[in-house]
Design goal:
Blueprint lengths: L2 E5 L5 H9 L6 E5 L2 H10 L4 E8 L3 E2 L1 H6 L7 E9 L2 E5 L10 E4 L1 H6 L1 H7 L4 E4 L3 H9 L5 E4 L3 H4 L4 E7 L6 E8 L11 E8 L6 H10 L5 E8 L7 E8 L5 H13 L2 E9 L14 H15 L5
Parallel strand pairs: 1-2, 1-3, 7-8, 7-9
Antiparallel strand pairs: 3-4, 3-11, 5-11, 6-9, 6-10, 12-14, 12-15, 13-14
Amino acid sequence: MPEIAYLGPPGTFTEQATRLLTADFDAELVPCETVPVALAAVRSGEVLAAGVPVENSVEGSVPATLDALTVDDPLVAVKEAVIPVQFDVFAQPGMTLGEVATVASHPHALAQVRGWLAEALPKADVRAVSSTAAAAAAVADGEYDAAISAPVAGEHYSSLDRLATGIADVRDAVTRFLLLRRPGTLPEPTGADRTSICAVIGDEVGTLSDMLAELSLRGINLSRIESRPVKDHFGHYRFYLDFDGHVADARIGEAMAALQRRCDSVRFLGSYPKADRKPASVRPASSEQAFRNAAEWLAAVRAGRLA
């Protein structure tokens, strides 16, 4: 049976997301301590793929994932999942909310339930730990009274009582996860796809606007852009871009070729179906048919069939 790594320990939202990402085939899920460890297991061939978080609608991107995608051998995303982020409160058996004196969770989780904590557990001592699942494990070991964890943690720590469910200051908070594999055959275009790249550009006037213009001119919807420093070159940045479309699409392929010419480097991070399956709206002049027609016209001119 193939093995799929994920950011552990067991009982986290990443485990929940990786289950969803691999629901269409049998695989054994293997928890890893960090994102780099999970991706290293993919690169070495130890596992088939890895499920990792890439961004949260409240706390933003996951720097460890972005950084790990740009070092060592390339990996590509083949699937994404977006899941709601609402937490459950687990406590030692028989304990009530009023008796909770210490509560633990991951810092990102604590940031997303700060209002709930102030209202429901105003006197509790809040402790930050390495993951939401680690918090549940610590409660099971008697280190803390309660943990704010992903609902799936209840499957791994069944001895704990669930004191509250579905807590979140932002009710519509979500986290996006990617399933990453070694380069190979790409998912087929679906008409509702996302392409991810990482580009490094020179420190010159207009380089960023020139890069973005290559997308705009082709009617490509840029859904996300973020910069991270090039760690060994102060003042230079990697730009992570997500845009609607598949590398097999004529306009996407043309734009990526243009970016390869303009940028110092471009790393392809995958073309994969969007989780919401929502096609991007495209101007008629930027449709796939318009690009195919233009390519056929140019080929005819070059061949001398048209003047």
